[in-house]
């Protein structure tokens, strides 16, 4: 893979972070928009890339268009965007299950990012990879293994937000939307008329990744490659009925998909799981 210029949102931890590290190790330049760049103060690996100029840390909130525009400007002409924003304030309610605050942070971040995306006169539109979740829609939930369905039933709050993410991308990519419409408290009033939002079909290179239930395990794909045997994660546009997958394996897929864009790009959704 040729060295890429990457812009990340939500990469202070988890899938976004592991994806960024893999890309940096391959020679990419990565720009991070971070609420608090201090999150990397003790991260010797990232600090090494900051000193070499390969990692750029931009302070800002991805729900704020002023901040997302500064991130785009700092990154310059980018080859790809990795969007892995997730809620940082999570609680549990016996009646509502997992509850996130703000309840629409992912949706509002993707709207802000897309509304400030520049138009490149002499370069192609960047490839766009967004991390969503398996079990999100009616058909996806139906395909889940029976034993794990109760877990997903507790994820109504974060899944409402992820549904807003996917609805926004479907609108801008010009994809047919057959699921229920997210509510106005997730999307915002008249969100389709929001200034700067790409018109239907204008977002040309999109991949939505739906991981199974995430774990903190090691990257099985790396272990399989090292040993030359074993079973790695599965990735398919079809429903997988998968149980779990490690965040590091999803990051492996993200980087692999960028290298194999003709195979995975614009597939709309790829489910990843063991």
Automatic annotation (TrEMBL):
The record ties this protein, via InterPro entries, to: NAD(P)-bd_dom (IPR016040), NAD(P)-bd_dom_sf (IPR036291)
Say which domain of life the source belongs to.
Eukaryota
Where is each NAD(P)-binding domain found?
A: 10-178
Family matches, as SUPFAM superfamilies: NAD(P)-binding Rossmann-fold domains
Gene3D superfamilies documented for this protein: NAD(P)-binding Rossmann-like Domain (3.40.50.720)
Q: What name does the UniProt record give this protein?
A: NAD(P)-binding domain-containing protein
